[in-house]
From TrEMBL:
It comes from Antiquaquibacter oligotrophicus. This is Uncharacterized protein.
Amino acid sequence: MAVPQPGRSLAVASTRADYLAAELARTGWRVEGIAAVSTTETSSSSAIVADLDEWQSHWGLLSSLRSTMHVVLDGCSLSDVRMVTRLRTVPPPLPVGSTMAWEYRADNTIGRIRLPIDPGAGRAV
């Protein structure tokens, strides 16, 4: 299982983009939209967060970011993963209720990555 490396930004395709963007911002990440990829330099604490449709409308961008950023697929179904990555392999299982997501790696594989958010966020005490 991977964790985001220091000095490496996140590119996140999520079925819950608004929620995840808020959680990342709350934990100190600078959250930006897809437009930031071409207009600014991303810092090590930057997270480009968008929903699947928005990433699809920028076809190929997510794949091109794999060598410089952690590309995270959050809350995605198997068909979502296949749509975004064009891969037909089955990703490893994710524990239910965890802060785990899939990472689309530069070597064209899918692994697990722990999201840098508070696992207790949003839960009643």
